[in-house]
Amino acid sequence: MTSKTKSADKLLFTSADWDFDTLKVTYDAIEDIALNELKLDVYPNQVEVITSEQMLDAYSSIGMPLMYHHWSFGKRFVRDDVMYRKGYQGLAYEIVINSNPCISYVMEENTIVMQALVMAHAAFGHNHFFKNNYLFKQWTDADGILDYLQFAKSYIAKCEDRYGFDAVERILDAAHALMDQGVNRYSRPEKPNLAAELQRERERAKYEDETYNDLWRTLPQTDQGDQDMDELKRKMRVEERRAQFGLPEENLLYFLEKNAPSLQAWEREILRIVRNIGQYFYPQKQTKMMNEGCACYVHYAIMNSLYDKGLISEGAMMEFIDYHSRVVFQAEYDDQRYSGFNPYALGFAMMQDIHRICVDPTEEDHQWFPDIAGNNAPVETLKEAWAHYRDESFILQFLSPKLMRDMRMFMIDDINSSPHLEVAAIHDDNGYRKVRRSLARMHDISVREPDMQVVDVDIRGNRQLYIQHTEHEGIRLEKTEAEMTLGYIGQLWGYGVTLQAVDYESGEILHEVNYTPEDLAN
Amino acid sequence: MLYIVDRRKNPTGKSLGNRQRFMRRAKAQIKKAVESTIRSRGITDITSGDQITIPGKTLKEPGFHHQGRGGNRNYVLPGNKKFVQGDRIARPQGGDSGAGGSQASPDGEGEDEFQFTLTRDEFLDIFFEDLELPDLLKKSLKQTTAFRTARAGFSVEGTPSNLSLVRTMRNSLARRIGLRRPKTAEVRELEEKISALQAKAEQRPNGKLTKTDEDTLHTLLADLEEAKRRMKAIAFIDPIDTRYNQFQKFPDPNTQAVMFCLMDVSGSMSEQMKELAKRFFMLLHLFLHRKYEHVEVVFIRHTSRAAEVDEETFFYSRETGGTIVSSALEEMKKVLLDRYPTDQWNIYAAQASDGDNYSNDGAKCTTLLAEDLLPKCQYYAYIEITDEREAEIFAAAEGETALWKAYAPIAKVNPRFALKRVTKAADIFPVFRELFAKNRAEAGR
Questions:
Q1: pTM metric for this prediction
Q2: ipTM of this complex > 0.85?
Q3: Inter-chain residue contact A56 with B99, CB threshold 8 Å
Q4: B234 contact partners, CB below 8 Å, separation of at least 6
Q5: Among A418, A422, A433, B114, which residue carries the largest CB count within 10 Å?
Q6: Would you state the torsion angle of the CA atoms of residues A354, A357, A363, A365, taken in this order, to the nearest 10 degrees?
Q7: Which residue stretches belong to region Disordered (chain B) (predicted)?
């Protein structure tokens, strides 16, 4: 750190304690840097001071200030509570909500340096990301979320009053089990066009007529022809049915909400609530690393700027660096503390690296990133990236060889049939692209989460519901959980359910679990 | 634009509803955990809340997830030190913790044990669910119950000593304002004005006022009359204003209880049997603690002689010698007379024994129990701890021990006395429940 002399009268604060005045003064200084130097684009901010107990509360109801009641939130609460009291786990320093105004929570126990860090991180970093990233723009409604949660909470409370805890809990349990499958991932698939299907079938029949060779009749007689006809009819019925239900449907909750025969209106509404909340969080799941990277980059830039301007003391800067380096710490794979990539660490490192490529590129950077290397517009470049990418595509686009070397990344092939793991690539010329592709895939939520679809309903028969898991690379579903979840689907559907695993390559059915209504009754 | 909002004063415990739902959900597991906790604690040491551990599996929130291993996959790890492309690594054994971030469960949650702290109330509620003092005990409790008085709002009638001045005056004031009763100050003002005018008249030569003053005086006099009339008509304090503090009597149960633990410690009582007895006593203590603010425990052990001892000696030392049960009953009687007058103490006793007794002692026990002890006790429970093998024999042959033979007739006639057999730890709780069940009489002893 440079040893500039600081005149004490310029400092925003001199002791570790904070009061509302220092908070305001500090916020104003941070805002000045965020808006005028970094030119961030943010929702209005609301900073709320809360106690650690309130932080625990908020933490356990998936970070939202308002949430309906459910036992699973209580479970999270008692676990966090124990961890916190025993000192195994610190509390999150901050919680920030994607809403307009953007609400950030700060804890009263924090020092003023921590409050400054949190405000820079959440009120400007996350806030900017929420407001500008395309996924959030497309999928979330920052203006309406708090009202919606308020509605959801009181609606579910009313249902508990009217229909009892148990009935509501049953629906919520089932809905939560399907929350990950309750989002629309892509634009809706085109509805199969029945007329076109029939036309195609007719043409095929005509072709068969034209190429009909009477000689075939001389072959030993079978009822093959009839079978073909039956098969054709059956297929047409299936297509008709699928069109009627809008199948295949990847949003299981949506399908059940609209089509489960025996659900009450209030039960459908609860499914809808859980589905909407799942959808609201879906962009966050896809941009965790970028979002944290953006917030860390912003708080780092702001705190350094405060220091450079002589607004905070060296002591405060030291304190900040201590927090900061703990947040962006990445344990190596053979470290006890390792539990995967730390999204804060990877995100921050990538942002800093892009900054470097923009202002101080090497020859290698020019080759890899001709568009941005040396453009001397680091913040603009980053803002572009924050707006238009998600974790997976961001890594694929921006992970540099230098960062792979710095973090000493390597890629493992884990092939089921092999007794060994194999190092498929490391941080060298041969490996960069492979490592990058693999890391990007790890951040692709459509790869991480199983590909589930409702494919058919036996509407004329016993109303059996068919759900397919498309199995990529032989990676199966966790069996016990899948069966429990299937049980929940059966409860909502009210009739039998079949889960089929289909191989992605060949399309053949690999295995199948059947639930009859009798199974579900137990 | 910044809004800073101080939310610290907001009610905390937003998660309370969630916590209660969680407890409801995990009830069976929590109950099991609570029961096992009790085994490892001292008798008087189980009334605090407790850290309990329940299996995480039972609170699983399932979903469709990929299996942790299997299939063909690849992943990236940080911190390579020595690997080059093509290196082979033996698969890590056990668990898939090393398998990289992509397999970590979405909320970082494993299936391991789930640990949390029960509050004292939660702990006891779970423990004493469905248990209450037998109805008959409540009746006998009522007879000895003292009453305490507590405020219970206000009433419109009562004794003058209970008059609530503040309430009464508040009502009176409201009524006076409502009915526009003139204030004393207003009347005095009128009177002063009148006397001023009258004084003015006396000063004048003809002793008469001017025409205007004359008119004013008339108006004033009329006003005064009206005011006085109103004052008379509208009382300063009306009976409808009065309010009296009301007190109600609340039953105030004796807030102290003493529990006698009697046990045969002669050679025939094995460590295991003592362990069973301990669990029973613990339950009893916990149970009493729930009802009374202050519970004392008296430990009396006996062989052929009896003595009062501390808990340590009671459970962990072993004597040899004959068995004379009546000696323990005598000791209890002595302690009772010395230290625990019946009008101040709720007295409970539990006796644990393997049922052996000196053959001529039975009659003495019966007499002591029926005539001296039971009239003083709220409840006296006898649990007979027997060997599992013996239990089988008894079950087959309807065999009875000496003590059982002596006690059984008392149980038939005296509802304050109950006896039960216990053979293994699992019996303790059910037996205790049965002894203290809500409707013991109906359940049949």
A1: 0.68
A2: no
A3: no
A4: B175, B176, B179, B181
A5: B114
A6: 20
A7: 87-112
